[in-house]
Amino acid sequence: MCGIAGWVAYAHDPAAQRSAVEAMTQTMACRGPDAGGIHYGRHVALGHRRLAVIDPAGGAQPMTAEDDGRITAVLSYSGEIYDFTALRDRLSAAGHRFGTRSDTEVVLRAYTEWGDDFVHRLNGMFALALWDERRRELLLVRDRLGIKPLYYYPTADGVLFGSEPKAILAHPRARARLGSDGLRELMTWTNTPGHAVFDGMFQVRPGHVVRVSRGGLTEQPYWRLRARPHEDDLDTTVDRVRRMLRTAVSDQTVADVPLCSLLSGGLDSSSVAAFAAQALRERNEPPLHCYSVAFAGPGRAPDPAGSGDDAGHAALLAGHVGAVHESIVLDATLLSDPSARAAVLRARDLPQGLADMDTSLYLLFKAIRQRSTVALSGEGADELFGGYPWFHDEDAVRARTFPWMHLGAAGVPRGPSFLDPALPERLKFDEYRADRYAEARAAVPVLPGEAEAEQRMRTVGHLFLTRFLPMLLERKDRMSMAVGLEVRVPFLDHALVEYVFNVPWSMKAFDGREKSLLRAAVAADLPRSVLTRRKEPYPTIADPGYDRILKDRLSELMADPAAPVRDLMDDRSAAEAHAAVQRAAPEELRFLRVGLESLLRIDDWMREYRVELVE
Question: CA 608, CA 606: separation in Å to the nearest integer?
């Protein structure tokens, strides 16, 4: 995995401003700690930071393709193509000669062989910038499910781009401005595809290509989920899901560096770990290493092998499949360390997040990176197979909003607001959320003749895959790449996603439990205690010491009239919220912590990024 950055300017010469391009590229050093490079050409600069995973000795980037000694194309690429060896064989048969064993060269040669159609041949997770020297055009391409990020910032004569917003903001032409729509996006958690929060900045949408030329900028999809009839019976469906998942996991265990698996002991991560351990064993490679997270409670030593936490279930699964398990133990001191919290904010570039769960994930990945370079994860299974409670709540399914927002509105106690209570009305949050929901509903593919109940569940599944899952993928990418750890997600193999998306809900929940289809597919591979374990959320810390630190930070903010976030606050409401936090009992503070941590993150973000509020 890597980080990319660059600049196309048809009225300027980027090489004349090398310091700007170097600054952009350097911000991606965390994503690519092993090497870096910049290609300068007429009207273009392509920067790259490398995390060497395949062919560490070769595969340097940016990589060029030449014809009779003249450069025809230049590639800066982040990602992994899992079937690159088969693709390389096809290209070799077509006359291409390879100088490396890297998948990067396969991607570049695929473009020179098939042109714009090359993207349909790629099976993996990727984000890339490809400059066609003959056309003087730039292609920005993102993988089908949006596993790898890619941002761009149109300018008067071209575009700035990067794997993360920080790369773009390092250029003097870009500014960290926050307008009304950016505030709406932050506060409503609607996660609109293509929206980047910062004014003037965009994301390349999953499954899309952005083309930049002298004539301007265009964006087109090359892939989307489609509705197709499902003709397999239940037994055939179960068997096919098992085979497809097993193949996807096996393909994603290929690496020239140490590989491990994230393991909570739940159904999803256990399925991935079981198939990964099997794949390594069949290739006579060393046993799979698995890692989970545990928290040291106040006044007691942690019990990583305890049966009541993730680590205990993870250890059981590891023993069952012949893997090596280790639990990474965190405590309040680590989670509240200002340097860790600052690293999380810097990694995300935005104040959105999951409070201490982001910090713990970052620290977990930091510890894993000392042991491994690539990790497998179970992300995507809940969205694909229907694992969240919202899938099984009729009111949430029928709600005229995103299902996860319906449950949040009804089931979470609300305390006083730290931010100005007038903001939702002034910025029309409800209207914005309703408009984004209508857009999301309109994008759901329709299968003619499908029963109303099945169509409704197809809609819910599509909403989760296109609006909810991207938030989790962004979190996983940022926290892992902040420490140079590559995380792969086998459940999001696009062929598996296409197949399972079209499996009727009656099959996905055939025995009345969440993820019935997945349980049946992996029944022969997991111990019964893991197979029947109900879904549990990612763990959060419960330590009074951590809460005290948060309260102290809030008091400091409230005492600072120059705090940037005060522009978004109402003094009276904020004072009430502050008082509520100070007197809250530990069990009450759990419900106030999200708003409290959000306020602190927004203030830190506005300071760190010098955010300008604009109308």
Answer: 6
| pLDDT tens profile 278-333 | 999 999 999 999 999 988 765 333 443 333 468 888 999 999 999 999 999 988 88
Identity of the residue numbered 579: A
239-268: b (≥16 Cβ within 10 Å) or e? ebbbebbbbbbbbbbbebeebbbbbbbbbb
Tell me phi and psi for residue 374, to 5 degrees: -125, 140
Which residues lie closer than 8 Å to 591 by C-beta, 6 or more apart? 412, 413, 415
Active-site residue identified among 2, 30, 260, 290: 2
What size, in residues, is the chain? 615
For the chain, give every domain's residue range: 2-221, 544-613
210 contacts 127 by C-beta, under 8 angstroms: no
Per-residue DSSP letters for 58-118?
S--SSEEEEETTEEEEEEEEEEEETTHHHHHHHHHHTT---SSS-HHHHHHHHHHHHGGGG
What backbone torsions phi and psi does residue 171 show, to the nearest 5 degrees?
-90, 140
Alpha carbons 483 and 371: distance in angstroms, whole number: 12
- CATH of the domain spanning 2-221: 3.60.20.10
**Are 546 and 590 within 8 A, CB to CB?**
no
| Nearest CA among 377, 393, 329 for reference residue 543 | 329
| CB atoms closer than 10 angstroms to residue 318 | 26
404: nearest Cα among 462, 476, 320, 460: 460
Q: Report the amino acid identity of residue 289.
A: H
Find, among 297, 150, 175, 135, the residue nearest to 614 by Cα: 175
Q: Are 332 and 452 in contact (CB under 8 A)?
A: no
Identify the CA nearest to 252 among candidates 494, 89, 498.
494
Compute the Cα dihedral for 352, 356, 361, 364 and give only its sign: positive
Measure the N-to-C terminal CA separation of the chain; round to a whole number of Å: 38
What is d(CA 364, CA 539) in angstroms, rounded to the nearest whole number?
Answer: 12
CA separation for the pair 153, 45 (Å, rounded): 15
Among 482, 484, 281, which residue's Cα sits nearest to residue 372?
484
Tokens, residue 514: 């969440």
Return the closest-CA partner of residue 2 out of 40, 56, 41.
56
3-class SS of residue 282 = helix
Q: Which of 470, 478, 394, 451 is nearest to 207 (CA)?
A: 470
Other CB atoms closer than 10 Å to residue 464's CB: what's the count? 23
Give residue 548's pLDDT: 84
As given in the structure block, the two tokens for residue 226 are 């489609």
Distances in whole angstroms, Cα of residue 219 to Cα of each of 7, 73, 209, 563: 18, 20, 6, 39
pTM of the model: 0.94
More confident residue, 98 or 334: 98
Crossing angle (nearest 10°) for helices 469-481 and 338-348: 120
Rg (CA), the chain: 24
pLDDT band for position 534 (50/70/90)? confident
Paired with 33 in beta bridges are 50
Exposed e or buried b per residue across 585-612, where buried means at least 16 C-beta atoms within 10 angstroms of its C-beta:
eeeebeebbebbbbbbbbbbbbeebebe
Measure the CA–CA gap between 188 and 231, rounded to whole angstroms.
39
CA 186 from centre of chain: 17
487 Rama class: left (phi>0) / alpha (psi -120 to 50) / beta: beta
Q: What is the mean pLDDT of residues 92-105?
A: 94
Is 2 one of the annotated active-site residues of the chain?
yes
